[in-house]
Please model this.
Amino acid sequence: MKRKGFFLLLMMTITILLTSCWSKKELTDLAIVAALGVDKTKDGRYHITLQIINPGNVAGGMQGGGGGTQSPPITIYSASGDNVVEASRRASGRISRRLYYAHTNLVVVGEKLAKEEGINTLVDAFDRDPEFRNTSTLVIANHSSAADLVKTLTPVDKIPANKVLKTLEFTERKWGEDVKTSLQEVMKSLESPGRGTVVSGFRLDGNPQQAQKLDNLQESAPGATLRASGIAVLKQGKLVDWLYGKPARGTVWILDKIQGTDINIDWEGRKEAIAYQAVRQKTSVSAQVKNGQPHISVHTRVEGDISEMEVPVDITNPKIITKIEQSVRKEIKQELKTAIERAQKNKTDILGFGEVVHRTRPNQFKKLKTEWNDVYFPKLDVDITVEAYVRRAGLRNKSFLSGLKENQK
Amino acid sequence: MEKAKISASQLFILMVLFELGSALLVPLAIDAKQDAWLAILLGMVFSFVLLLVYHRLYTYYPDLLPTEYMQRILGKVLGTVLAFVYILYFMYDASRVLRDFGEMLLTFAYPDTPLFIANALLMLVIIYTIRKGIEVIARSGELLFIFMYVLAIAGFILIVSSGLIEIKNLQPILEEGLFPVLKVVFTQTLYFPFTEVIVFTMILPYLDNPKKAKVTMLCATGLSGINLIITMLINVCVLGVDLTARSQYPLLSTIESIQVANFLERLDVFFMLALIITIFFKICVLFYAAVVGTASLFKIKSPSRLSYPLGLIILFLSITIASNLQEHNHEGLKVAMFVIHIPLLAIVPPFLLLVAFFKNRKKHGENT
Model:
């Protein structure tokens, strides 16, 4: 009987312990950090900017009728410190709640910091923290400070961090001049021997002061907006170059991250006359080493549709299609070549060619490793082969322009 | 020895859960870099040899616990000392696994909780289970084994479908040749986790059908080996070698990377549940072996009485064993491996077998 009583007591004590109130975090005590911006102050310290969600104002839209526009969906707090963790702890003096990083999906690094000090020293704090997720996206602010970028309010997607993430995700897939790079991917490529790193770039168009105000959102064409802009090239963690336009798209292409994009080809003297819309593509890179000299082949295969013609072309004729395909091939090849040349000029192997050599020819790569970026990569021989196919052409065969031309004869 | 019987399938399940135990937690064999999977595979294959040694010893004395037949083989004094050493080893190993468990919980989920509380809560459950005996352990194993595999398969499908696997991370294969891999095999994977199953020699006498012992042992080791290989392959494919090597708990990082369709993410609970299940059984088996071993050595009638004192010893040992996680890991990989695992798992049993072989042959010769 005594024993039973003891057990009863024990079990009751356990139930108290098992309710796990120990490290409890009440939802009302959490400040959910959506985005984190890191800049460098003039005296060389880190300045972090925290984008914190105002839960009431985000849900406001559900109650209909333009509710929740009284105050912004996010609030910004910032603090400085000698390292990121210190700055984050210092910030708690300004916030009534506990900072909660588990939902931080976006880390913005200021251009100045990336250029002068590099991101290598920053990353460990994010990597080590059990609350922080490695899947969060890393962005470098293009021509602005991280603080300005984080402070900007955005239309459509109320939480600016989400707007940035979605923009990157869709442009990477549908246009291809930007990449979406997670912290984990960036770390992986920083660590890889003889490899440069690409990081997504984002910029603020317009006046930073204007961008923080709700008034900005009440215009149909906001004066200050955020947009994906360029790809940051990092060499040993430091920002060395920005890629825009064709070199940027070529780089994303070789990294095999593009799904669909639009390629224009010239036709019968008219520039950019036919729009070819890539639907899917696959790029593979292979390497050979001959007499100690590395040799890279890039092969890409792309399938797509014709989506616009500004000149009358009779595409019912398969021979014409073949010709279009050839032009597309040339166009893509040219683009990839620009990307490679740009990377070689920067002496930064952002395309991961070194890794390919390492994987397929590990013994030879040992000799090349130390001087890969500065000696071997810039004078690398690269073969580019492109296979392009036109599969469909939308709802019509001949263009409306062809009919116009025939009837006017 | 208690009067209990377990079936071959129950033994199989216990062995699989035991070997997965804390091996799922750590970056196993990562010293072999991208060839870690190969080191695990070879470790598994070589462990079959030692498993056959353990099994052969069992066939000489199918009804006796190792702590008893050691006395038969080596004589009363030496045998008793050796048996005592093995009991200490089982308890030490149990406390190591318990510490692993506590450190995992604290690092990841409960940063404010004292280690003692986390360990004590699991230990209380284990003490209770041990009191109920081997049959209960085996039956609960059957239940949770299914649960564990459902989790594992679901996790596997999610990882594959989120497109995280990059096979090229595994290349180049054998970058530095076979030697570094073999070094890892013979200093790590062969002992942890595979031949740690020496503890099951304490449980084999409970088997209802002794003929099935050999097949069961080999199959269980094979299955858990394959599981560990797949886990490590996935870890390296998803995280890359460097990140895997830097991670305290690579599988956790891998599972955290899962993002399917923008809403299936943060599935860390999968990892926690799988690890708690396997670690629970690993400690249970080690602890149980220590309890029945002590009972037989000191002629204690009801072994279940020992569960409280020994359980408390394991609990306190798990706290005092190291002052931080780094020290704990260093001890496990660099010290305990050579001082404890290699002598007790790979040197003593073959020696025992040799002596037993000559003793039994002589006896056999006298009979004919």
About this structure: Chain B is about 75% helix and 0% strand. The longest helix of chain B spans residues 325-367. The mean pLDDT of chain B is 88. Strands of chain B lie at 259-260, 264-265.
